[in-house]
Amino acid sequence: MCTLTLSASVPALKPAECLDSVCPSATPAQYAVFFFGLYLIALGTGGIKPCVSSFGADQFDDTDSEERVKKGSFFNWFYFSINIGALISSSLIVWIQDNAGWGLGFGIPAVFMGIAIVSFFSGTSLYRFQKPGGSPITRMCQVLVASCHKWNLTVPTESSLLYETSDKSSAIEGSRKLLHTDELKCLDKAAVVSEAGSKIGDYSNPWKICTVTQVEELKILIRMFPIWATGIVFSAVYAQMSTMFVEQGMVMDTSIGSFTIPAASLSTFDVISVIFWVPVYDKVLVPIARRVTGQGRGFSELQRMGIGLFISVLCMAAAAVVEIKRLQLARELGLVDENVAVPLSIFWQIPQYFLLGAAEVFTFIGQLEFFYDQSPDAMRSLCSALSLLTTSLGNYLSSFILTVVTSLTTRGGNPGWIPDNLNKGHLDYFYWLLAGLSFVNMVVYVFCAKIFKSKKAS
Fold first, then answer.
1. What transmembrane ranges does the database entry give (predicted)?
2. 392-398, long-range: CB within 8 Å, 24+ apart, which pairs?
């Protein structure tokens, strides 16, 4: 943030002022400083996002039933605080950038990041620290190599014959022992004690023999994979908020009296929806669900994510209905061949943003809980990073679907579903396609959730 602030403030680091309509381009050095700042933010975000939620949840004792329930609330209010920041950023900070300059607009977040660092370190003496267990990717590779190395060996029917340390604690620092499960027996070969190894009595090389706990870590990740994959389709739906929802809003009536509302600013209603739904979920829905299900958290993580996926189907259906109404009005007013806005208020988009915010509260926060609770103790940050990866892959999937749809629907000289003039297109078909994909995704998710087996720690 400091680099971006300097890039926008120091005359030598920013392009010269525009003269009338002529704006000089930035020099390679100015571009370099600017992009260096952006990539530093990406690097810093990669460090913060996967770890901060896991570190926060580590402050709660899983063996204490009261703290375990509070941990569920922590994820809700953690996500709530993120969206408070997003609301301030997308309103106040954007206004400052537009009216007072980019230097001040970048400088204020830089100051607040400094305050955040001081705040974070000031609590050092109060934190509970989990011992780092080394690289989880290395441990996974060790299991694969060891199991391939002993491919010809037979896995004993008695799991007690598989290699595991005799100590109460696991060989992996900061991790509890995991009980053996019967799935994916091919990976159990990594924990088989060979005759040669038994004679020597040397079990120190993890590339040749792994503990049951280490093997079970990889099994857990494989079992979580189908659940993780369904999050990609949800993220593709979520990506519409900054793409197709904005395109749709631009051809609607964006005026309120003498004011004009930027179509992209309606995403604020998604943030407001999250801010509304988090307290409702935590203080109203959870206590009601607790009485019905008997679970301390009200809903299990899998139930919560399933509800979010269902709401995402409703979100796409709502967007399609609005588009059907907009196209109907365009035909009635003879605006089909004109690339102009249709006199239908942009506020008709609010329900789809509101539903998307509700889906976000159920699915994204449910993902945070699920990947934290079900991941091995020494893999929590990695699994949190995997849950964030669905957002990235969902954006790529959205782009891929859009490319395929455009290619298929513009054949034979047709304008296609999403032409430059949306009044001639059928954006509603695209929304119905996403609603259909979301429904199929939800059905697959329900099947995967039913067969999913939770981890078992000893």
1. 28-48, 77-96, 102-121, 220-239, 259-281, 302-322, 353-372, 384-409, 429-452
2. 392/235, 393/232, 393/235, 394/231, 394/232, 394/233, 394/234, 394/235, 394/236, 394/237, 394/238, 394/239, 395/235, 395/236, 395/239, 397/232, 397/233, 397/235, 397/236, 398/235, 398/236, 398/239, 398/240, 398/243
